[in-house]
Amino acid sequence: MAQFFKAKPNRSKQLSAKLQLKVTQLDHLGAGMAQHQGKVVFIPGALPGETVTAQLTEQKKQYARGKLLQIDTPAPSRCAAPCRYYTQCGGCDLQHTDLVTQRQIKSDILVNMLSRACGYDIQLEQPIAGEGWHYRRRARLATWYDKQHKTLTLGFRQEGSKQVIAIDACPVLAEQLSALIAPLSTLLNTLALKTSVGHVELIEVDNGCFVVLRVTQSVSVADKAALAAFAHDRGVTVLLQDNQGQCCDLQGDAVTPAYQVAGFSLAFKPGNFIQVNGDINARMVQQAIDWLAPVAGERVLDLFCGVGNFSLPLAASGAQVIGVEGVPEMVSQASTNASAAGLDNLAFFHGDLSSDLSAEPWLGRVDKLLLDPARAGAFESLQWLKRMKPRKVVYVSCNPSSLSRDCKQLLAQGYRMSRVSLIDMFPQTHHIETMALFEL
Questions:
Q1: CATH number for the domain that contains residue 427
Q2: 243-262: per-residue pLDDT in tens?
Q3: Mind telling me the catalytic residues?
Q4: 424 in the same domain as 293
Q5: What CA–CA distance (Å, rounded) separates 433 from 271?
Q6: HSE (side-chain half, CA atoms, 13 Å) at 226
Q7: Is residue 152, in this structure, part of any structural domain at all?
Q8: How far apart are CA 164 and CA 158, in angstroms?
């Protein structure tokens, strides 16, 4: 008898029946965690202490993911999100709970993760925290041009999607930047360049507000005139960014945004990394200096130094500071910033900090080390601790998972985490910034 193959249904992808689950905590990505049949179920949008109705959307051997359908018993901290685009745009994901609870949740997550990694109880110091709204001094807005209707959509991308959600305001942006979105969208839709706008960057720093338009074609005289009128009326500077990332104003002159930190002016180019929360950044830099306590005669190494956010303030102590960064353009900008500040005890180098560093001219004995890596962490750089032998290490992290992994390497080489604090750089989101001090 002939036999025909019949594929078995992929039950791991099928939706389950509705389940009522008790949420006990949040994971480090902001999803609620519940137990079902011996598995952890991750439920975005649910809060600790809530009873919710959910539906499983993904089944794995060790865990499952669920979709929140209904909140049966809300947590006392649950509140209505003030942003009408909440759950649509892929930005904020914790607006459904109050700011005090957000910070407590982040603190609990940080304590749990670091205590497990270190093998002893971690106590957090007072967090660095500020305003919960209108704190972002920089944002990149996505664009989408509809050829059929000849319209340009300006906004943020939907979570897990390329779709652009049109917005006319954003409550976490600096108020002047938020107020630019709607009129800018209206203006762009009247211009010929609307077909060639790649993205829009909004920046508010100490030397003004900037609107950066990434354009893939030349801009007509008429469009430049309209943009100039907009810039005049709104009190902003419009910069045009070409395919090579070079920026100039509407007259073709080079203009560079700059922000102040610890008495220094740090210029940067659109696309360079800077911390988006200016107030928190200033306090974070001061705390790093206080914890490291650099003095004249010491050699201090600043890895992942960017445009000199920590390097210049550290050099003000009189210590010999070496900054290392993987983006050549930012190395050049950091050197320019140091020269403008009149600092001659500061040198910057370009280097791939995830590769073999043995031949790097700056690698050697240092008294103190500061690291401010991207989300991937500094695991490869810490392989060279035995060559550096710093007495103190300040690690600034934007990802508690990579920090937890990397602190094991520090502990294995004789360091102890002596101080750690939460830095609430991104209120209304699950993102956790941390500063930890390790001492021999």
A1: 3.40.50.150
A2: 888 899 999 898 999 999 99
A3: 398
A4: yes
A5: 21
A6: 16
A7: yes
A8: 6
Of 430, 385, 432, the residue nearest 97 (C-alpha):
430
Domain with 55 in it: what CATH number? 2.40.50.140
* Token pair 């137990």 in the structure block, residue: 35
CA dist list (Å): 254 to 258, 264, 269, 366? 13, 21, 10, 38
Distances (CA, A) of 17 to 9, 10, 54, 69, 288: 16, 16, 9, 11, 51
Task: Please indicate, yes or no, if residue 2 is contained in any of the structural domains.
Answer: no
Q: Which residues contact 193 (CB under 8 A, 6 or more apart)?
A: 213, 215, 217, 219, 220, 223
Q: Is residue 326 in some structural domain?
A: yes
User: How does pLDDT run across 193-211, given as a tens digit for each residue?
Assistant: 999 999 999 999 999 999 9
Place of tokens 């004789």: 414
Strands of 392-397's sheet in order across: 346-350, 320-325, 299-303, 368-371, 392-397, 433-439, 416-423
- For residues 94 and 26, the answer to whether their CB atoms sit within 8 Å is no
d(CA 300, CA 367): 6
The neighbouring-strand residues paired with 68 are: 54
Q: Are residues 411 and 320 in the same domain?
A: yes
Residue 154's domain comprises 138-258
pTM of the model: 0.92
CB burial of residue 115 (10 Å; 0-12, 13-18, 19+)? middle
Residue pair 50/71 in contact (Cβ under 8 Å)? The answer is: yes
